[in-house]
Structures are given as structure tokens and as C-alpha cells.
Design a protein that fits this description.
With about 425 residues, the protein is α/β, with parallel strands linked by helices. The chain is about 35% helix and about 20% strand. It contains twelve helices and 15 strands. The two termini are about 40 Å apart.
């Protein structure tokens, strides 16, 4: 009888031990949720007011990283692309011949690092930037500035073919829906309709923090008006529109970003060096060069590099959902067995994430032998995403795209329980 009781006690203890470990794999492979790989992507954990990185979130555990793109490099490219266009088309760019190159700008999210960088990049290139005491460029929207008196920007000057032109930011605003969703296409379409009705003849350039808002303004007014519009993301519809007058866009190498998002997870799950298949070729031959990405160890962040897409090269970017050739080789399923990943997209309506990034992820998850559950939020409330992370123990890893960059603790708290 004593032996039977002892055996039952040991069995109960073992069952409790296994249940307490968590993990999707079961058995010897179980891992506590707080120790599972976490990749923040697209929205870097940071203070939405100051832009300061959240180092605690980026170091949540030894297998935590961020994947995005080099925001400053891309922002500089966008500004330079617009400046180059103005110089190349100066004879027709000043539509009302007033000597002022007027532009309007759609701002995505005033608290988002990428949005801040892009606003600064355009202003810096066009000479309209105002610098704070700490040396950073003001990124606040100006509202309406047709008289050139805003404190957030200044009039720039361009010398082209012996003639001096003034460059003025006529208007800019954060494109937010009535429900609070930022980077909102509908708000951008409404804004350009208002601006064009009030001072349309002064608008020579339309700039946007992304292609979703840019295309909304292009379709609502600037296409018919013949005003070049510049966006960011190289969404397929925007790239195709370059043939019809869309000025240009920036490819943030979504193909490379999507690969990195899942590859970093794959490497952590396999227990190999994080650069495997990235900076160092894997057994299948996947590898990237320093022309496609940079890794900043102190930030635990992988950044894809950007490429300007213009009338000269847009045909190369018409399909934004094609995987990057250098990292399109499938891994051996026996050596890299299937693992389960929880991945969310902060806003189901976001054009770039839903129409470009997700289709790429769905191709790479197959190549990397990952079974991914895709969760879509509403773009407004963090709970629309976080409340759906109900059973972390059912997954081997997590890829998180926050609604707000401040909210990393919402997820780390769930994983630490």
C-alpha cells in the first residue's frame, strides 16, 4: 500500500512539474513563457514623447530583439528624393509662378519614431527645418502655414539655374481618425480636400509619412491636379501609380524585414547564433549582405536598409510581396522542426502591414518551418491585440507589433506571469 501511495505521489508531482513549465512543445522542450523568444517588430519599444528606447523591453530575456528598418537613413532618402525631383522639374513645379515651392505633409503619428524621422527628413532636405536647443529638428505638425509664420518650420531657399526659390510648408497635420487611429488614410483624404479647396493653387508638392496616406491624397486630389505626391513603404498600389504621376516612394525592404522577423525567432528556437542565415550563411545558403541590413548590438535591433523608388526604377518594385532572393531557400524540416509562433499586426486596416508585410511573413513562415497564428488589432486600443494573447504556453515564441510604442509592458507582464 505504501508503495502504491508513493508511486501516485511521484506521478502527481511529475505532472505538476510538467504543467508548471509551460511551452508548446511539451516534454523536455518545455520553456517558461518569460524565457521564450520575443521579437518586437515595426514599432520599437520606446517613449512616444521623447523617442528614448525602452531598454528593459529590448532586454526582456536573452532571446529578445527588435526588427525594423533604419528610420533615419530612410527619412533622409525621402527628403533627398523630393529635393531631386524639384530640381529636375523646376520649370513646371511652381504651378502658379509665385516663386514659392509650396508643399503639404501628412503626418502619421506624432509619437511614432518613424513618423518623427520622416517629417524631419523632409524638412531637413528642403531647408524648412527649425532646430531645438538640443540640436534635434522640430517635428510638430504646423496646422496651416500659408503665411510662413509658423514657429515649427521656417521658409527654405533653393538656388536653381541662377534663380532663388522659397520653399514653404503650407500645411501639415497628424492624420488621425475620429476614433483615434493614426496613420489614417481617410483623414489624409479629407485633409487634402480641405487644403486644396482653400489654397490648392499654392500646393506644388504633396509629402506623406507613408503610402497609405499618400495614395489617399493622390486619389482624392493630387493625381487629377497634376501635383507629384511622395510617400513611403513602396506599397504595390503606390509603386504602380508612379507610372501615372505619383512622385516616388521609399522601399524599407519589407522583404528583408519580414525575413528577419521570423529568422531571429527561428535561430533562437534552434539555439544557434542569432546571425545564422543573416550575416552568416546557413546550411540552405540563406545570407544577407551589409547592403540589406545593419545590426546594432547595443540596441538589440536589426534594421533593414531603404531604397528610393522613382520613375527610373519602379518596375523592379511592382510586386512588393516577393521574397528576397538571397534568403528564399527552405530549411530542412528535420533539422529545423516546426514551432508555433504568436504574431500580431497592430491594425488590420494598415495597408503596408496587411498588404505587404503579412503576405511576406506567410511565405517566410513556410520556408522557415514556423506555424504562425496571425492576430489583427484595430489600431486604436492595445487590448484589441493583447487581450487575444490568452494562452502564451501554447506558443514557442512571440512576434509583437504594438499599437503604441509605450506599451511593451502590457505584453511582458503577460509573459512573466
Amino acid at each position: 500500500m505504501k508503495k502504491k501511495v508513493l508511486a501516485l505521489s511521484l506521478a502527481a508531482a511529475m505532472a505538476f512539474s510538467l504543467a508548471a513549465c509551460g511551452g508548446a512543445g511539451g516534454g523536455e522542450d518545455t520553456v517558461a513563457n518569460q524565457d521564450k523568444p520575443v521579437v518586437w517588430y515595426n514599432r520599437q519599444p520606446s517613449n512616444s514623447t521623447t523617442g528614448e528606447l525602452n531598454t528593459e523591453a529590448l532586454n526582456f530575456n536573452d532571446d529578445t530583439y527588435y526588427v525594423g528598418f533604419d528610420a533615419n537613413q530612410g527619412a533622409e532618402l525621402q527628403g533627398q528624393m523630393i529635393l531631386d525631383y524639384i530640381k529636375a522639374h523646376i520649370e513646371e513645379i511652381d504651378r502658379n509662378n509665385d516663386g514659392i515651392i509650396g508643399y503639404v505633409m501628412a503626418v502619421g503619428d506624432i509619437g511614432h519614431n518613424d513618423s518623427i524621422a520622416r517629417t524631419r527628413g523632409v524638412r531637413s532636405a528642403l531647408g524648412t527645418a527649425v532646430t531645438k536647443d538640443d540640436g534635434t529638428i522640430v517635428s510638430d505638425p504646423v496646422g496651416t502655414n500659408t503665411d510662413g509664420k509658423s514657429e515649427f518650420v521656417q521658409d527654405g531657399k533653393l538656388e536653381i539655374d541662377g534663380k532663388t526659390y522659397i520653399v514653404r510648408e503650407l500645411a501639415s497635420q497628424e492624420m488621425k481618425s475620429s476614433a483615434g487611429a493614426t496613420w489614417n488614410d481617410g483623414a489624409a483624404g479629407n485633409a487634402i480636400s480641405t487644403w486644396s479647396a482653400n489654397f490648392g493653387e499654392q500646393i506644388d508638392i504633396v509629402a506623406s509619412n507613408n503610402d497609405g496616406m499618400g495614395m489617399s491624397m493622390f486619389n482624392a486630389w493630387s493625381n487629377e491636379a497634376g501635383v507629384p505626391t511622395f510617400g513611403y513603404d513602396a506599397n504595390s498600389d503606390a509603386v504602380a501609380a508612379i507610372a501615372n504621376g505619383y512622385g516616388g516612394t521609399i522601399s524599407q525592404h519589407a522583404d528583408v524585414q519580414a525575413y528577419l522577423t521570423l529568422r531571429v525567432i527561428r535561430n533562437a528556437l534552434d539555439g544557434v547564433d542569432v546571425q545564422t542565415g543573416i550575416g552568416v550563411a546557413d546550411e540552405a545558403g540563406n545570407v544577407l549582405s551589409d547592403k540589406e541590413y545593419v545590426y546594432k548590438e547595443d540596441e538589440r535591433s536589426f534594421y533593414a536598409l531603404n531604397v528610393a523608388v522613382t520613375a527610373e526604377n519602379y518596375e523592379e518594385f511592382l510586386d512588393s510581396t516577393v521574397t528576397f532572393p538571397a534568403v528564399s531557400n527552405k530549411l530542412d524540416a528535420e533539422k529545423n522542426p516546426e514551432k508555433k509562433v504568436w504574431l500580431n499586426i497592430y491594425n488590420s486596416a494598415d495597408n503596408f502591414l496587411s498588404s505587404t508585410y503579412k503576405p511576406l511573413l506567410e511565405k517566410y513562415d513556410d520556408l522557415l518551418n514556423l506555424k504562425v497564428d496571425y492576430i489583427a488589432g484595430d489600431g486604436q486600443n492595445e487590448q484589441s491585440v493583447s487581450d487575444r494573447l490568452t494562452d502564451p504556453s501554447a506558443y514557442d515564441a512571440f512576434a509583437i507589433n504594438m499599437v503604441k510604442t509605450d506599451n511593451a509592458v502590457t505584453y511582458t507582464t503577460k509573459l512573466a506571469q
